[in-house]
Specification:
Two copies of one chain form a homodimer. By secondary structure, chain A is of the alpha/beta class. The first copy, chain A, is built from twelve helices and twelve strands. Chain A has three domains: 46 residues, 434 Repressor (Amino-terminal Domain), CATH 1.10.260; 129 residues, Rossmann fold; 132 residues, Rossmann fold (3-Layer(aba) Sandwich). The first copy, chain A, is 43% helix and 14% strand. The mean pLDDT of chain A is 93. Chains A and B meet through helix 4, helix 5, strand 2 and helix 6 of A and helix 4, helix 5, strand 2 and helix 6 of B. Chain A binds a DNA duplex through helix 2 and helix 4.
Chain lengths: 342, 342
DNA sequence: TTAGGTTGTGCAATCGTTTGCATGATTTGG
DNA sequence: CCAAATCATGCAAACGATTGCACAACCTAA
């Protein structure tokens, strides 16, 4: 267990002061050094295999070169590509990422924010933000850069990267409309998540635009983005509104749950009820009937978020506060024209 | 951007020395403090909302309370549950996890090990180890605790948690044998990964045990655990050995690739060729024909690995160097009796 | 009563870097 | 040829916590 090399060791070997070594090894040091000494030091450092201790440096500079990444749950297929996008973008700049799972539990989220702060993260990227998120609000107040991915906060000062939920919903609605559907239900996401809220709003708006009658009672809010919730809501919605011919779900998991719900009522997808999702999870290609959905850019959302954070960390000219990534309608087998009722 | 509270601030507020505060807040401090002072300090600290700066503490104690987790690629469905198992187990003990993706590229792995070392991780859990891994070997030499999950290293001093690959292969082989298969091929994993090597060895051994004729030429080594490789190897193997009726693939991805390969030759799964995988990825339930495979415990492997690391970090009595988790045969639709050739 | 033992707290060094300032060496210009 | 400017390097103080040691106050026992 040989001790870690320090600046002091290099300094001794190169017969200079530690501060000189520090400067020689710092590419953008303000103080000037002679080429000769600088090179000698670099050579010695490399020979000895010197590696800086970022903890010590972090203590002095108050920069840990780490960022916190908060997600609800890494085992949810939506998040790994986002996390990968973040890591791939940040790593070349020397930032390491600390990953934490909040399970969408507010207290847990608050505790994990503390954990990250104690470790002196330079910034935080959250994919787990609630519309009204006290923890995030506090971070902002403390001046710690925060980026919210996939979701938005109600407070408008938090930079975000989201998908174009609005356009996505309109595309789905138009698809239904073109097929001939007129009674369309919506299984919405949780009210406290921006994705749920934005998509529900887009749904209402879209219905109106297509001249569909009041659709407020055709929206059913789920409590969580989970299959079981999708099933429960679908059953309840179809019980109350048996004339529905199409079901627009706020995400894929709700849609897969809707499949079960529809079948439990003795109906078929899509012959009796057309179903759509949102996100385009990788599994979908293989679950029959293959789900018609909206594809969002997952890796890219992480990438864009990381860039936004880098910009904030480098104190750069503050770019746009929000980035909206384009989406794409993916038509598969879960949608068809309604049974003719003529 | 109000400054972070430090021990000094608390000390001033409680009118004691910083060292006293440090001791009061350290649950297992060796020095004794009067109840009264200790409580007063705790109250003041809580009131002020003091949070220790782990960076500073880490510098002094040489413990960062972070661990590095190295995986090939978080977007591979095998890894998220493992990572979650690690994080869930470590977090309650105050450890944060830094996640890095190696993409199975050795140079990248070496660089990332440096990144982790610079950050002073207290230990490393790798799910990306090669059988012969110079980076890991160096860590061991430096006395940094390392645990290898899912894979083993050839050097025997690295504690590991693996699944019972051996039993898993025997179960699959017995399953084939019971169905009546006698010409069984094996698409093996890469030679430099222990999973590939162990499974191939178990295959050979199992063939012999069942009295099957020399099977060495029925093993085909893939270069990577990827679908495309599975397809390529399957096609080549079946070209050379057209009498094969069953294909045992070293993991699920190779098996899914095998599906394509078999179909490209105009054959059907399982009627013409039975296929099996390994791991039981979540997608499998939905890809027809549903793959017969061996289920490994993913979350548990992370959990067990984390426990092993905790043990190593607490310098505890060194427990077993290896943990082998039980596996389970999952029979689905990709296997059936061979066509009768009577 | 006093020597010796506790007990509770403060002092100061330390961890490995970074960085403002001081200082000695060298160059420049008049 | 000397004063002033410039350059290269060293010095030492941070950063915020931990911890061995010193020391004062108190307690106990002979």
């Amino acid at each position: 267990m040989n001790k870690r090399l320090t600046l002091k060791d290099v300094a001794k070997a190169a017969d200079v002061h530690v501060s000189t070594v520090s400067r020689a090894l710092d590419p953008n040091s303000s103080t000037s050094l002679s080429e000769e000494v600088s090179n000698r030091i670099k050579v010695v450092a490399k020979e000895l295999g010197y590696r800086p201790n970022r903890i010590a440096a972090g203590l002095r500079t108050n920069k840990s070169m780490t960022v916190g990444v908060m997600i609800p749950d890494i085992t949810n297929t939506l998040f790994p590509p986002i996390v990968r996008g973040i890591e791939s973008t940040l790593e070349p700049f020397g930032y390491a990422t600390i990953l934490v799972n909040t399970d969408n539990i507010p207290e847990r989220e608050l505790r994990l924010i503390e954990v990250l702060r104690e470790r002196g993260v330079d910034g935080i990227i959250t994919v787990a933000a609630h519309r009204n998120d006290p923890g995030i609000a506090e971070l902002i107040e403390l001046g710690i850069p925060v980026i919210s991915l996939n979701r938005r906060l109600d407070i408008s000062t938090v930079p975000y990267v989201i998908n174009d939920d609005n356009v996505g919903m309109k595309l789905l609605l138009k698809h239904f409309f073109d097929l001939g559907h007129r009674r369309i239900g919506h299984i919405a996401g949780p009210r406290d998540l921006s994705t749920g809220q934005i998509r529900a709003a887009a749904f209402s708006e879209g219905c109106k635009a297509h001249g569909l009658p009041d659709c407020a009672d055709l929206i059913y809010y789920s409590d969580r983005f989970e299959e079981a919730e999708g099933e429960r809501c679908t059953v309840e919605l179809l019980r109350t509104n048996p004339d529905i011919t199409a079901l627009l779900c706020a995400n894929d998991r709700l849609a897969i749950g809707a499949y079960s719900g529809i079948r439990s009522l003795g109906l078929r997808v899509p012959e009796d009820i057309s179903v759509t999702g949102f996100n385009d999870s990788p599994i979908l290609e293989s679950i029959p009937p293959r789900l018609t959905t909206v594809r969002i850019q997952k890796f890219e959302i992480g990438q864009a978020g990381a860039k936004l954070l880098l910009n904030a960390l480098q104190g750069g000219a503050k770019g746009p506060i929000g980035t909206v990534l384009p989406v794409e309608l993916i038509i598969r087998d879960s949608t068809c024209a309604p049974r003719s009722e003529s």
